[in-house]
């Protein structure tokens, strides 16, 4: 994640009547009435005409009092930490754990100085607030194993009791499909009885089952693209396929994929379109370093909903830039697919855009579908290419069938094709009217002609992450 900056076009802000903060977004200053006022004044960022409706994102700023008290708390803990270390030195304090032992002093240190200090004196005091063992399904609430410590959280003992119904703010079971009862669990159970859990071969060898193909067809129709391919691990969907696409970013899987691809990586400021455009323009004007030959391919890698901040990508502007500069767009919808847009089709639907404008639609089945794995969707040529070139297709075992079944069942429920009128358990879709979909205004630029072109360019490519 990169530090972001606001849209600096003052004329534009004046025209829209609201001055966005960083990222061109309106900040929520905690005052409800102020927020409502901001909503009334229709804020659109500089490229407002690209949006079919006002795009307002607000992030709550840390109140000054909370920030001051937090820093004061850190300050006090640090002072006491030094005091306790001093007492340890003089053998007054008894707890010596997490320090290098005397006989290890000639080895490369296991702990960095401050890391060690922080763990010993700050983190250990409060670590029982995290990492608690869960002993139920990760639903909206879950059960925790009760534990206690007699040595200031250095070790824990289980009391044998269970803390019931604790609110779960950690898991990404967004729509509540990851349950051990209900239609998904039943379907997964039935298919396990029939086929077992393991597939024991790769997709290219003996591990290609009709259920895999049904999942891929369903995913393609859900995304509104020609074709799709499913992979057993969301992380590997990025890290194993970006190298195939880029030839020789945000989430670690994107960064790893871009690094493995061997392409040159440049990072633009988070969700900042001026920063992206500057990189694109510089890349086209200057070409490759030293030779100044034009880049063979420029790939823009973005996340639909950013995993760290929860901000939504300014997709209409990214698409306009990608078309203007003839770049390719790889959209990671790990967090937005299923959860955003009137019918859960993700950020593309949220903005009323056409999936064809995104060259590579990537997402994972781990979040909204409560399963495991990932997919890539796009034109048929692109998916056919991945089927024969992706390491995941050639060397990795095919997806386990209960997982496939869980995804098929949850996706059909989201699509309303499960024969019921039941909504997903935690339905959160935004209320964009259906008639506002597919309304991206055309920019008039030509853009790349398709995945065939993506695939021809195997080296001398540039990856832009932001
Ligand atoms: C943006 C993004 N892409 C990819 C992944 C990897 O997905 P998975 O957890 O399904 O392996 C994640 C995981 O959280 C993610 O946040």
UniProtKB/TrEMBL annotation:
Gene3D superfamilies assigned to the protein according to its UniProt record, in alphabetical order: Type I PLP-dependent aspartate aminotransferase-like (Major domain)
InterPro entries referenced in this protein's UniProt entry, alphabetically: Aminotrans_II_pyridoxalP_BS (IPR001917), Aminotransferase_I/II_large (IPR004839), AON_synthase_class-II (IPR050087), PyrdxlP-dep_Trfase (IPR015424), PyrdxlP-dep_Trfase_major (IPR015421)
Domain of life of the source: Eukaryota
Cofactor: pyridoxal 5'-phosphate
Disordered: annotated segments: 1-30
Occurrences of domain Aminotransferase class I/classII large (ranges): 164-406
Alphabetically ordered keywords of this record: Acyltransferase, Membrane, Pyridoxal phosphate, Transferase, Transmembrane, Transmembrane helix
Biased composition (Basic and acidic residues): 1-13
Pfam families: Aminotran_1_2
Annotated transmembrane regions: 64-83
Family: Belongs to the class-II pyridoxal-phosphate-dependent aminotransferase family.
Protein name: Serine palmitoyltransferase 2
Naturally occurring in which organism (per UniProt): Labeo rohita
